[in-house]
Amino acid sequence: MLDSLRTILANDPVVKTYTQPYEVVPCRSVTAFSLLYLLPGVLQAGLLYPPLSRLRWLRWLRLLMTPLVVYASLRWPVDYCFTPTTRRGYHNLALACASFTMAARSIEWGSLNSFKEGKIWKRPEFDSSAPHPKQSPKSSFSDWLAWTIELASSPRGIQYDWGVKAAPNTESALDVVVRMYKLNIIHVLVTAFSILCRDEGSATNALRYLGLGGFYGQTIVAEGLASLAFGYYLVTMIELIFSYMTLLIHLLVLVHTRLVSLPDWLMRTCDTRTCVPMFNSPHTSASLAHLWGRAWHQNFRQTFLICGGAPASKLAKNLRLSPQLQKIAGMCACFFISALLHEYAVHFIARQPHPSAYILFHDFPGSAVYFLLQPIGIVLEPFLIPYIPGGGIVWCYLFTLSTTIPFRRQYFMPARLLDHSFPAVSWSWFFSSLLVPGFTSRG
């Protein structure tokens, strides 16, 4: 029996992905059918619906579903991928992150006694002021569906309760469009420099191509600019994608109010108040702690807490460490899970037989090194910032730009995140990219 189990595990696609990273594990193009891999997780989330979560047998069912949901979620990017992989780097990054996040949330959903233990409820400022009438079975199902979709799909938690507790969004659709065009100017500039770095072979060569090289320290300046461009590329791309989702929600609200009444479960999910911008001015952060805790996007915060922060803090508490050491342990564990997530993601961006394949456990783990260095910087910064001219903002830029280099090289290697859909820089590409926000790639 043990031999049979070993054989099954050895041939399992998920296991082979990590134990035999050089071997090609074929993937099919993503289809609507592939979303069924997420269905067990959505159903598990639905069992936390307040009127149901108090039922003991459903509590056990949620717990028993956890291994299935974790396995199905992790297998999704193994069996499916966006093709061709050399032109779909960002798509496969999103696919990997979604699968990892669903697997992590399933662990929490399966272990909670009820929704109250997980603090899964709407913040008062987001809840509707309209009274909730006694609901018929049909409307009760609608309420369950809206609640489930909201819990399972929100990257920052139900009603933006995970992470920065921002005020409800008040931007109009026109405000969103104006902000998108402002972001797009930065996005096009940093993407152009990143493409030059890719096509010229190095950041230094890109600087020379622009006629700015040939001075002492040009390599340091070039690498710093390339890392800065990498960071702003991530910020602007994520924010622009989320802005398009926000415009879609505004459109649905307009259709609902002016043309035709849409289903209640859909309109409860499409609440413009929850469309808070992804980033909170990370460029103005005066400390790494503020950058990661308050300014950067919070899409993975709950994942890091579930798999790393909460268990590590509890372990430190059981070991009777001081409250300060408990916090440090939790923080380090969160960044460790972040390191795992980004290594996991880059594998699915560039899996075999990708021309720039990333081989897990064999290639240099640039993103892991970057995220494992962050807690060290956070611990040291209170002692260093007072002695740095310019204070915390200068410290943040110096630390992040210097530690980002291996992360950038890992993700921006040709045909990975900056894939072949991004053409060579030209004036026609530059001006056409300015017209439509976020469309710097060409399919």
From TrEMBL:
Give the way it sits in the membrane: Multi-pass membrane protein
Residue ranges occupied by any Wax synthase domain in the UniProt entry: 276-359
Q: Which terms under GO biological process does the entry name?
A: lipid metabolic process
Chief subcellular site? membrane
Q: In which pathway does it act?
A: Secondary metabolite biosynthesis
GO MF entries: O-acyltransferase activity
Keywords carried by this UniProt record: Membrane, Transferase, Transmembrane, Transmembrane helix
Lipid metabolism found in the keyword field = no
Q: Which family does it belong to?
A: Belongs to the wax synthase family.
**Can you name this protein?**
MBOAT_2 domain-containing protein
Lineage, broadest ranks: Eukaryota, Fungi, Dikarya, Basidiomycota, Pucciniomycotina
